[in-house]
Amino acid sequence: MADLILHHYWPSPFAHKIRMAMGLAGLPWTSVEIPRVPPKPLLLPLTAGYRRTPVLQVGADVYCDTHNIARALADTAPEVGERLFPGPSRGAALVLAEWVDQTLFPLAIRAVMAEALDTASPDFIQDRGDLYFGPGWTPEGLRSEAPGVILQLEAALGRLESWLAGLGHCDYRELSYGDVAAAFIAWFLRGRWSRGGEVLRHYPYLREVESALEGAGQQPAQEIAAEKALAIAAQTVPQASTGIQCPSDLVVGQSVGIRPYVRSSDPEVFGRLRALTSDRISIDHEARDVGDVVVHFPITGYQIRSVD
Ligand SMILES: N[C@@H](CCC(=O)N[C@@H](CS)C(=O)NCC(=O)O)C(=O)O
After folding, report:
1. Residue partners of 228: CB distance under 8 A and separation at least 6
2. Which of 2, 11, 200, 302 would suit a FRET pair with 111, their CA atoms being 20 to 30 Å apart?
3. Which of 19, 37, 52 to mutate to test the pocket of ligand 1 (most atoms within 8 A of CB)?
4. pTM check: above 0.85
């Protein structure tokens, strides 16, 4: 198997989730550090314009979004899949991970950003506000909603705690990707929100999962420059198969547009459909410096349309 190259920056909570997942899976990985804000000229040729973090590159196959990346990691070998999703834990882990990202993270990012309004650079605030809250958001609105958001955040953390309390883990009897998906929120709140440490004291099961995964996967096997990662893509042939494997009107070779199904400033990404399954869409993309690559997105959380 080609090296697992993670395009990321260290403070990214979603990248932290994938670093922990690779640690739990026992997978060595290669680090490429990318900028925290656009422009990202050495990332976008690989992703057809998708700008979020992290992105996993395996040769000339490029996986966007952590849910998609987690499944790609699990598919690298049966024993890796078993470490990420032991026994029957896969369904619970993926459902919990999606709930964390769709319900808990939007509350956490609001609490963190409301506080960061006073300290972070205006450019960073504008970029992240547009990305996470969509057009029309205002700093005043974010600030005035913060107390209610924090109440919701604590209620959601309580719900997560009651899930973990059942078995001490997300599911089954060992750590799984579901625990990784819970731990990254704790890592984010503790590190980026002044009240994080105090609030987390009320959730001992979440803290236990957080400490069980502390440090997991945070040491890359090697670090390479982004230029080298592009050259690796250019020298490699994509491995992704071709075909439509679920009921759909879409056909191989047609143009499609893909963008996150949330109010945000994310650009739509375009490409020629190469493969479609019930949980992944793969497009052919060609760009200078990388040649032909295949970019993979998950289906849930993304809106796909035909643009022919
Ligand atoms: N649904 C995406 C969300 C990823 C995401 O929002 N990542 C943040 C960083 S933690 C991001 O992209 N921030 C803007 C950027 O890096 O340009 C996933 O699961 O990968």
Report:
1. 32
2. 302
3. 52
4. yes
